[in-house]
Amino acid sequence: MENNCALYAGTFDPFTNGHLDIVQRAVKIFDQLVILVAVSPTKHPFMSTEARVEVLKKLFAHEPKVKVESWSGLVVEYARQHKINSIVRGLRPTGDFEIEFQMASMNRKINPECDTVFLMTSEKLYYISSSLVKEVYTHNGDITPFVPPLVLEELKKIKR
Predict the structure, then answer these.
(1) By three-state DSSP, how is residue 91 classified?
(2) Which domains does the chain show, CATH number per domain?
(3) Which residue in 36, 73, 131, 157 has the most C-beta neighbors within 10 A?
(4) List 19, 52, 89, 134, catalytic entry
(5) 110-155 tens-digit pLDDT
(6) Among 67, 89, 130, 134, which one carries the catalytic annotation?
């Protein structure tokens, strides 16, 4: 990978406008951004890993700085294997800091060459989370303001 490459990892189930905000800001800072759809054994995704990867590839097809992949191991190990030294994380004012700080510290212990860069979520989007979007969608609520149109199209293929 390039020297100024970063990794933005998450389950992205679904990918929200809050995630989009972080990606749009990260590509202004880094030469390349790998969006890594993480496969978490503790989560039960709404969308398949393949569907999430495909929708993100379509969503960022116009952005040459963005690459989309999936990974079922430790994110920091992906970073090590691909010589990526920065992990981007979004922070919301909803209690994210403690969890993110702990994860960043653990990642740094596992891979001292890798730093975590925190971007504060836009004040217009901080209340959005994938779990809340899924909850609203499951109860037939309108999630149009919370997700990119391509994500909404993909979600409509899934039973509520």
Answers:
(1) strand
(2) 5-155 (3.40.50.620)
(3) 36
(4) 19
(5) 999 999 999 998 888 888 999 999 999 999 999 999 999 999 999 9
(6) 130
How many angstroms from the chain centroid is the CA of residue 61?
A: 16
Q: Is 43 known to be catalytic?
A: yes
Examine the residue annotation and report whether 130 is marked as an active-site residue of this protein. Answer: yes
Q: What is the pLDDT of residue 140?
A: 92
Distance CA 146, CA 114 (A): 31
The one catalytic residue among 43, 83, 124, 160: 43
- Whether 92 is catalytic: yes
pLDDT in tens, 44-84: 888 999 999 999 999 999 999 999 999 999 999 999 999 99
The question of whether 122 is a catalytic residue gets the answer no
Cα 147 to Cα 41, 73, 158, distances in angstroms: 24, 27, 15
Residue of 108, 121, 49 whose CA lies nearest to 80: 108
Q: Return the residue matching tokens 């100024």.
A: 4
The pTM (predicted TM-score) of the whole model is: 0.92
Q: DSSP characters for 92-152?
A: -TTTHHHHHHHHHHHHHHH-TT-EEEEEEPPTTTTT--HHHHHHHHHTT---TTTS-HHHH
